Amino acid sequence: MDTPSQSASAPANPIADDDDFAKSIAYGERALNLLKQLRTSAKPRNYELFYCFTKGANQEFCDALRRAIQKDSRLTEEAAERLYHAYLADKDVTSRVSAVGSQFGDEMDDIMSLISSASEKAGAYGESLQGLNEKLPTIRSPQQLKEMLTELFESTKEMAELNKTLERRLVESKAQIDELHMKLELTRLENFTDELTGLTTRKRFDQILDLEMQQAEETGEPLSLLLIDIDNFKSFNDAHGHQTGDQVLRLVGHTLKTNVKGRDWAARYGGEEFVVLLPKTSLRAAVTVAQQFRVAVKTKELVKKSTNASLGHVTLSIGVTCYRKGESALEFIDRADNLLYAAKEAGRDNVQADAEAPKTHAA
Description:
The protein is α+β, with helices and mostly antiparallel strands. Helices cover 63% and strands 10% of the residues.
């Protein structure tokens, strides 16, 4: 694997604009070569990771990517996601939010300047009217009256034009601010949405979990958790390729997304693991939901898009637990993880739950 030159004083963010077109093309070609060598899908996120690696702008990032590849002899989905969110995603979002904030500030400065100018001219117009009113009793001839009316007409015309300009600029500004607001909303959604499955990201899920645990702690209402793993995913991925593996991930993600209801949350937890949070749901009810997920995925036949050949069915192992008052998020998730491991040990394609609820196996 290539080892790029690196600088100890490099900035934390490995992304920077390339003024040199030739250099940027060279970085891109090296990134694509690395993707080919490691048989890694050339999706935008993975390309960005290797592009930043070839630039060598961040020693820590390059070392982390190198270690991740050495560990599994390739870049796994889980490792790619972890590296992206640790070194690229948050910084990219921050820079975009900062850029939008700067544009919004510039827009508001322009509007305030225009309003200030309009206010000054409105004041001058008021003074002009007051002056003409004071002159009115002194008028002795038609010529004097004509001159005063001409002055009044010019002042009124100027004020009307200013009002039209201000009105038009305010309409334009509203459209611009609406567009900036949309950009911020899209940035927020990108940061909270897994690009492959369309589910909530782990980062966002961790935030939601903390909030729902606080709610359960205060109200005493049940809060159940499902930790889900795709059975034999690594073997399937190695046998059929990463693109087909991505198809499996999308299948599971779509099934979860279309079956969660109300306040329920489904997220991609990492690699081939998913998590579902069920507020106000008892352990027994959560087991029923887990079985519904398991059956819904198992009944869908997977077909290889390139050949239309059947690849069989996907099965899930699921651990189900319910929040216990006073425990930490780590303890909560660890119990679900232990139950997921028990489901694997029991032969996969089944649901294992805390002792408080009946254990249910493959049907």
